[in-house]
Design brief:
2 helices, globular
């Protein structure tokens, strides 16, 4: 099973962190935790850059996060060129790791967000969504 099933990707199917594919298919967010030093990573890493250990465990991550910063992307990798310009946000998950994802232009610094994994016909996409907007959309 490879990452090609999830549309645009930067990973190779031989990656040691290939189990992330199963989590994404279930709409779940997961990271890796080093069993030697306890460092937590998202995107997942199989080799700890802090202590060089290769012993790790998969841990579920909460979808709650807070926007740290963002940028408007005008020049993107070939897979994303048709979508330029777009906003790319950096958010910090409750557990500490940070994640990059597309954001809506109405999102402001410091607001509470959710990492949302969308199962699309052509693959999977992740984005940061304002909690308030998500709650409103569920009321309809």
């Amino acid at each position: 099973m490879g990452f090609e099933k999830f549309g645009k990707h930067g990973y190779v199917s031989q990656a040691k962190v290939a189990p992330i594919v199963d989590y994404l298919k279930k709409g779940e967010l997961a990271g890796t935790k080093c069993l030697e030093c306890g460092a937590l990573y998202f995107p997942p890493k199989a080799d700890c850059p802090k202590c060089r250990s290769t012993k790790f465990d998969w841990v579920p991550l909460n979808e709650n996060c807070k926007l740290i910063t963002f940028t408007e992307v005008f020049f993107a990798p070939p897979e994303f060129q048709k979508e330029t310009p777009y906003l790319l946000g950096l958010a910090e998950l409750e557990e500490g790791p940070r994640v990059f994802a597309p954001i809506d232009s109405r999102i402001a610094y410091g607001v509470c967000l959710l990492v949302v994994i969308l199962l699309l016909p052509g693959g999977v996409s992740a984005g940061l969504l304002n909690i308030y907007r998500r709650l409103l959309s569920h009321r309809r």
